[in-house]
Specification:
The chain is of the alpha+beta class. Helix content is about 25%, strand content about 30%. It is built from seven helices and 15 strands. The C terminus is likely disordered.
Amino acid sequence: MLSGEKIAGQLHSRWAACNIVYKDVTGSTNTDARELALSGAIHGTLVVADKQETGRGSNGRGWETPAGTNIAMSLVVRPRVGVLQIPMLTLVMGLSVAEGVELALAEAGAGSEDGSQSLCACGIKWPNDVVLGGRKVCGILTELHLKPEGGIDDAIIGVGINVNMVDFPDEIKGVAGSLLTQTGIRVDRNALVARVMERFEENYEKFEQTGDMSLLKEQYEARLVNKDQRVMILDPKMAATVAPVEAVEAKFQAQGNERDVNGLRQQEAGGTVEVLGVCLGITANGALTVKLDSGEIREVNAGEVSVRGIYGYV
């Protein structure tokens, strides 16, 4: 059973989740957290719900959390960085969830027969989807709020983790998984919340120290499933689509108007130009670094990106 008391009993942090607000049922934990922030909630206040009915996902999608299976939580942070640095909070949380999931699975006894932890290794699909065994198990939505006079009031980081869920709606069942479906291990949700908050506290402090991902870059890239994968950049907004080379080549062969310009394979379609390259990693600012087939290095920013093909989902 998920509860604020059980989370606090397993938590070892100084400020992350220092104030836990638990709800059996809520509409949206992000909305709850924002209301608390407006009322003066301190940095590190965490809202956790057993059931979320009208949660918000990325790109306006809904995110529902059925009772008794998953985690819906939102963290109030009051960053001491600039507005332009806020999008990196999503990457910081994605890294923290991946690390926290591995810790919680290890505590629950997950691992391969030879004693390694390959079974519970979590990857990150740039910028912030946590993937386990080829399925998405977590979504993250960060919402920034500014003061009327300017400056940052707060940022609410919403996190949805599929923990012990086994049945998924038709529209996502080809994409989504849970810790249980991907490892066969039933995880204590209280412990998982605690481990994620502990990892976030450490990672956030590194982020705030520099105002970028430079101290987290190595950790993040070690889990980046896009790294060394073929990338398709869609102009004019430089959106990147990651796919196996076979899928990329097949797409171009199936489409017309293909041409080579300056060594780049480009496809004009509806006013866009698709350019191929290889993902090298991320920059200190969290952008995806891509080496085009021409040898040119380009940076692609989060918010302009659709990543698909590695595990067969968008």
